[in-house]
Amino acid sequence: MPIPGTAPTHARLRRTATVVIAAIIALAGLVVGSETLRAAGDAVESPGRASFSRAPDPLPPGAPGTIVRDEELIGAPLFARGWRLMYHSTDLHGADVLSTGVLIAPLSPAPPGGRIVVSWAHPTTGSAMACAPSLQDDPFLLIEGLRTLLDRGYAVVATDYTGMGVEGPDSYLVGATEAHNVLDAVRAAQHVEDAHVGNRVVLWGHSQGGQAVLRAAEEAADYAPELRIDAVAAAAPAADLGRLVSAHLDDISGVTIGSYAFAAYAQVYADVPGTQLESVLTPQAVAISSRMNALCLLSDLGELHRIGQPLVGRFFRIDPTTAEPWKTLLQENSAGGRAFDAPLFLAQGSQDTLVIPADTRAFAVHERALGIAVTYDTIPLADHGTVAYLALPALTTWLDEVIPAN
């Protein structure tokens, strides 16, 4: 028999269990209630998205990262505040362009030097203005790892890229423009006083966004020297565009990626001889290009495939990975052209059929040869769509190891 007072009685066990269960139910209710309120906030904000995305006329001048317009969002994540931003950036030619995006900061107190900010670059959602993540019903949905990053005290800023969210030149897989958008998003975040963003930066992106953050890391020292890039992370990055296009010359992914990318290149490199769309795509492909480019990848995938499937094997007029000027343009917009002074985390899904695992491994070897400290992590069973989420445990462990304390 237990000594009285040294072991809980059945009644005490029941009371303890009741308290624990009540706490769990309360916590679950808080989370569900918060998500309900967030969804309601998103619905309230929905009518204002179109007016927010219209650029002022005339547009006031501003340095890269200067905010043109911002608004606080009602439907922010739990224990956080959020803002929608429109800010100045520059394109690959150095011209002033606009970009939009969202900023999220935790409610916890910021450290004396300001919060570390994660500049997130999203995977392909399309190339049309309406495909911008910030214009969707939930503008935070595609930020992979958002909750984990907020819980660590980081702020997170997520660009839409130029030409999405507000009118501007196309930027799909245009490395320099995307890089500037990613870096200028940090500058814009610093202008939001209540977010308490400092100059320490983590770059994190997936697929197209992987290419964007890699290029941002390469250009940061020259383009935004006031920013301190503490770490760079990419999941299944579209790092080597020549390898990516070569792997999909004769499948539906090649048709979809090609419709977005080569239309963008024909537009932004119009002054380069031989960059007319007709020089790289068949007449049938040119004919459907505008229809494909008006569709968003996530919401219109079925229609994209319905239009594009008949052109599989009949999409490219030439092999752009070997024919000029396209070969050079793919090289110029790829990552890996120069080293950067920050550790690099690369995650690759073992089941990815879009970004081929062997290509990411080869890129990791290339980056190490440049002197970059590379951590390469193969994520078992992950495909292209799931790799960034499934890489989060390894990514957060790595960030805890490499981020300097001050």
Quick structural summary:
This protein has 13 helices and nine strands. The protein has helices at 10-45, 49-52, 146-151, 175-190, 208-223, 241-247, 252-268, 283-293, 301-308, 326-332, 357-369, 387-390, 392-402, and strands at 67-73, 80-90, 96-106, 115-121, 155-159, 197-206, 228-235, 344-349, 374-379.
Structure class: alpha/beta
User: Span between N and C termini?
Assistant: 56 Å
Oligomer: single chain
Strand numbers in spatial order across the main sheet? 1-2-3-5-4-6-7-8-9
Write the layout of secondary structure elements.
Layout: H1 10-45, H2 49-52, E1 67-73, E2 80-90, E3 96-106, E4 115-121, H3 146-151, E5 155-159, H4 175-190, E6 197-206, H5 208-223, E7 228-235, H6 241-247, H7 252-268, H8 283-293, H9 301-308, H10 326-332, E8 344-349, H11 357-369, E9 374-379, H12 387-390, H13 392-402
Parallel strand pairs: 4-5, 4-6, 6-7, 7-8, 8-9
Antiparallel strand pairs: 1-2, 2-3, 3-5
Helix pairs in contact: 4-5, 7-8
Could you explain how this protein is built, in words?
This protein is of the alpha/beta class and 406 residues long. It has two domains: 48-240 and 334-402, Alpha/Beta hydrolase fold, catalytic domain (Rossmann fold, 3-Layer(aba) Sandwich); 242-331. Helix content is 38%, strand content 17%. It has 13 helices and nine strands. It has helices at 10-45, 49-52, 146-151, 175-190, 208-223, 241-247, 252-268, 283-293, 301-308, 326-332, 357-369, 387-390, 392-402; strands spanning 67-73, 80-90, 96-106, 115-121, 155-159, 197-206, 228-235, 344-349, 374-379. The chain has a nine-stranded mixed beta sheet with strand order 1-2-3-5-4-6-7-8-9, sandwiched between helices. A hairpin with a 5-residue loop joins strand 2 (80-90) and strand 3 (96-106). Helix 4 (175-190) packs across helix 5 and helix 7 crosses helix 8. It starts with 9 loop residues before the first helix and ends with a helix.
